[in-house]
Specification:
This protein has about 170 residues and is mainly α. It has one domain. Helices cover about 55% and strands about 5% of the residues. It is built from 7 helices and 2 strands. A hairpin with a 2-residue loop joins strand 1 and strand 2. The radius of gyration is 15 Å and the shape is globular. The two termini are about 20 Å apart. About 30% of the residues are buried.
């Protein structure tokens, strides 16, 4: 990505994928949320501005786990992975995401939305509720983040290959 994105924030759907991955990692790792978020923000430093990103991600995690604890979800890991897939492939429950634009890049940085945490948790609640009611799709069982070729710059940072983690 170009240097012009340095002063911009991730698009809303990328922010939501980042928070979902941080939540997923928090559930399986013995690291504090702050450390996980700091690692993710550092990984995205070349693409997006880190101003307020770490604070917003921590706030997003707190609200996400608050919601998860308030409802009964049988498989949180599956729901979080499905949410990442959903964010990459759908703009809303009825609108598929256009991944290839004639002009522009869907991963290009955007101005910071002041309500991005609120928007993220509202979107996640809507998705989780729709999944529970059978109105929203879960990710296919065979889906992996490597399948998202168009969004490889994002997923490769969130899901580094084991040999890349050692570097």
């Amino acid at each position: 990505m170009s240097a012009q994105n340095k002063d911009n924030c991730p698009p809303q759907f990328v922010f939501e994928i980042m928070v979902a991955q941080a939540a997923s990692r928090f559930l399986v790792e013995d690291n504090p949320a702050e450390q996980i978020v700091a690692e993710i923000v550092t990984a995205f430093d070349e693409l997006y501005s880190s101003d307020a990103l770490e604070t917003d991600m921590i706030d997003g995690l707190e609200r996400l786990f608050g919601f998860i604890q308030s409802v009964e979800i049988s498989d949180v890991d599956r729901l979080l992975l499905s949410y990442m897939w959903f964010c990459a492939n759908f703009e809303s429950l009825r609108v598929e995401r256009k991944k290839k634009f004639l002009f522009g890049n869907p991963l290009k940085g955007k101005p910071r939305l002041l309500a991005r945490v609120y928007t993220m948790i509202t979107n996640f609640r809507s998705y989780a509720t729709a999944v529970g009611q059978g109105h929203a799709p879960l990710s296919p069982d065979s889906w992996t983040p490597n399948d998202e070729i168009e969004f490889e710059p994002i997923f490769s940072l969130l899901f580094p290959k084991p040999e890349e983690k050692k570097k």
